[in-house]
Each structure stands twice: as C-alpha cells, then as structure tokens.
Amino acid sequence: MNSITAGSRLIRAKGSRSAASQGRRINRSVLRIVVDFMVARNQCDKAIVSVVDPAQRAKKLDSPYNSIREMHVMRRVYCDANATTPLLPEVVEAMRPYWMEHFGNASSIHIHGQAAHRAVDQTRETLARFFKCREAEVVFNSGGTEGDNTAIFGLLRAGDHFITTSIEHSAVLRAADRVVERGVAVTFVGPQPSGLIDPMDILRAMRPETRLISVMLANNETGVLQPVGEIGKIAAQAGAFFHIDAVQGAGKVEFDVRRFGCHLCSISGHKMHGPKGVGAMYVRRGTPIEPMMVGGSHERRQRAGTENVPGIVGLGKAAALAMESLADGTIERLAGLRDRLEAGILELSGTRVNGGFDGDKRVPRTANTTNIAFDQVEGEAMVIALDLKGVAVSGGSACHSGSAEPSHVLMAMGLDKNAARASLRFSLMKTATEADVEHVLKVVPEAVERLRALSPVAAGTLG
Ligand code: PLP
User: Who lines ligand 1 at CB under 6 A?
Assistant: First the structure.
C-alpha cells in the first residue's frame, strides 16, 4: 500500500508509486485530484482516507474511535435512474436565481411577482412543446403521485367503472383501491409474460359505464413501453377518458399526447434530471376533472397552491434538455450502453432478462432499463453486495425498498416469488459512460459468484 499525507489527512491506496505516493504533504484539493486520478486509472480500487482531526484529538475524547472517520473513495456507478436522477448542472443553474433574487410569488402584481410569473409562463410554454399541447393544457403539480391521484380521484364517482393494469405504480394502484371503497368498480388488466399490456384485453374489459382507463407509458421496473396509442383509440371509440402515467417514459421516448390519444398525462421532474417534488400534467381542454387541491385560483383553478417557482423552472430546463437528448442521439447512445450492459451480464450462466421479449421478438423498452433475473441469488443481497462495490441498483421498484415483498410487476408477468426476488433492475442515467458499464460488468460477476458460493440453493442444502 502506498500512502499520501496531506494536512491532517492520510491516504493509503493500492497502486503504483506515483508522485503522490511518496508521503509528501500536499493540500486537500490536490489530494482529491490525486485520488480521483488514481481511481480513474484503476491504480486503486478504492483509497482509504483516514481523517484525523487534531482539534478533536486535543479534546481527549472518551473513545478513540470518535476521532477517526474512514471514508471510502471508489468509483461509484449509479444504475438506479428509475428511482431518481440527480439534477443536471444546467438545471441547477436555471433554478439558481429563483431561490433568492427572483423569490416572488407568481400571483403578486409587483415586480417580484412579475419575474416569478414570467418564469412560470415561459416554463409552461416549454412543457407545451414537450407534451405537444396548448399552454393552457399544462398544469404544474408536485409530481407523478399527484398527477396519478388527480386523474383517478378527479374523474371517478360511485357507479363508474375504471380500467387500469396490475403493473402500474402504487400511485395508481393504491388510488384504485381507494375508489373501490367509494363505490367505483375497478378492473386490473394483467400483462403478457413479455410485460406488455395487450390492448385487446383492455377492449374486453370495457363496460358501458367505463369512465376512465389509466395505463402507464413505460414500466418502472422493466422499462417495457405500452401500446398507449392503440389504447387511446379504444378509449376514444368508447367515449372513455384516458390517463397515461408517463413518469418513466418522459425524456426517454418521443412525446405527443395527441398521438397517444390521452386526456390526461402525468410526468415528474426527478425522473428526468429535474428537481424532486415537482411535476406537470397535461389536461386536455374540456376534461371535467375536479381539482384535488382547492384554495387559491392558481393553475386556472385546477391546482391550488403557491407555485413552486424554482422547481417549475428546473422542470422546464430538464424537459428542454430531454427534448435535446432525444434529438441529438443521446438516448440512442444510452440504448447502446444498456444493450452492452445487458449482453455482458447475460454471459453469466443462469441469467435472463425479465420482459422485453415476446417469443423471439423484442418488445419496445426505454433506452436505459434492463431487469435481469439471476438464478440462485437473493436480490436484496445482490443490491447490498453491489453497493459495497460501488454500484447502485434496485431489487424492484425503489418505492418498495425496505419491503421484502417480491415485485408485483414481475409476479404479474408470471415469475414465481423466488425468481422475482432474484431479479435486479439496472437503470442508467443519461450521463452514463462506457467506463461505468465496464465497471458494472467487472463487479457483477464477482458478486454473483460470491453469493452463489454462499447460496443454500446452489449448495443443495436447502430442503
Ligand atoms: N409513476 C411511476 C411509473 C413511477 O415510477 C413513479 C415513481 O417512482 C411515480 C409514478 C411517482 O412519481 P413521484 O415520485 O414524482 O411522485
């Protein structure tokens, strides 16, 4: 092990003898660069940074452990973009003036309010381009959960029939449970083993009193893209309203609410490199939706509450960048990286992709997602093992993390409990690089091999 000393910091790292490894005293920022450089050059898997704070040491702490913190610096690859994404720097910059400089309430008539109002209006114009709708049809809200709830609670009354699918996000499924208690009949249409919803199953579920159909654009766990255009036509023929939860599709596929044939469409900022707690909904003109939030006359009386101006500005910037990414080849490049990742993992024995295939035929998926079952591996254990090696993935829907229940999506697709529990979702950010994918492909086989060696299933010791 080589060591680097800097101020009060001591770094020990595996690797060759670099200038930094001579034990010279260097300042903190140089130290950080050296460590990043060594990690990037694979000269060390990780550098162990021991911080010894002289001030703390002088205080004669009760326990020597309090004076030493260990921080692990290693390549981290975030493959959980379907759970959330970080803000892009451009988004942070766009939001920055709206925290302090232009802090006004968009409803105020003075100069502070005008600046905020202008920003909201400009963002509404961007979102109208994003959805391909009129500006008056864009309603800002707090994100996907609110959009999904608004569609369901805002349209359905006792005696109505509601069709949705068994692979929706819990924001739809739990809202559906709630309307059942209020006298609404609900049909949950199941997917094919490929993860696709067959529009004919929606048609078969239709009743004269069907008022609303809600189907997601892209599944959060498998990335499978649903045939929303065909479902939209079925809804139109029957005179039913159609809502799309497009939270996982936004920024990953071309958007056109007219082509989708929907009346309502929900998106969320934080799934597309925008801020958390802000989203938008397309509400087709004339859709008789009752607002969930009442109070002031914000958002044309469709959603009361002082506008989250920095959040809305951030959402707008994220949406504008998402449109650019679709046009400039970024999303295609991402699909290539996902395919490389998937193919590399499938080289391991006992692995298969969940969804994405209808027989031999590929079904369309979002560019960033793959969901893979690993035989003889426990998904949660893999998530932890990979996290320790710097790779963040999800063992199912992130919103269910902490729960041992196998994924309802994978179960609905016909996987048994064990296979569902042994599955991992890899979802890449649009900033992912080839080096990221290579790192994942290096650590996944190591983790699988180790866990399989420990597995009672693999060892044949399970009754
Ligand atoms: N719909 C889908 C498909 C999602 O994946 C999520 C979040 O994971 C939501 C809705 C909820 O969105 P939000 O976190 O903005 O409330």
Answer: 143-145, 148, 169, 171, 216, 220, 245, 247-248, 268, 279, 399
Cα(111) to ligand 1 centroid in Å equals 36
Q: Which two tokens stand for residue 22?
A: 């001579």
Handedness of CA 125, 128, 133, 139 (dihedral sign): negative
What global pTM score does this model have? 0.84
How far is Cα 405 from Cα 158, in angstroms, rounded to an integer? Answer: 31
8-42: pLDDT as tens digits: 334 444 433 343 334 444 455 545 554 555 555 55
Residues 404, 200 contacting (CB under 8 angstroms): no
Could you read off the pLDDT of 344-356 as tens digits, one per residue? 999 999 999 999 8
At 203-225, the pLDDT tens digits run: 999 999 999 999 999 999 999 99
Helix (H, G, I), strand (E, B) or coil at 237: helix
- To 10 degrees, what angle do helices 330-346 and 434-454 make? 30
CA of 79 from ligand 1 middle (Å) equals 17
**DSSP per residue, 381-401:** HHHHHHHHTTEE-BSS-GGGT
Q: How far apart are CA 439 and CA 168, in angstroms?
A: 32
Task: Pull the structure tokens for residue 246.
Answer: 């497009």
Which conformational region is residue 267 in: left (phi greater than 0), alpha (psi within -120 to 50 degrees), or beta?
Answer: beta
Q: Could you please report the per-residue DSSP string of 262-291?
A: -SEEEEEGGGTTS-TT-EEEEE-TT--PPP
| Residue with CA nearest ligand 1 atom 5 | 220
d(CA 115, CA 106): 8
CB 76 within 8 A of CB 419: no
Tokens of 275: 């801020």
Q: Does 399 qualify as catalytic in the annotation?
A: yes
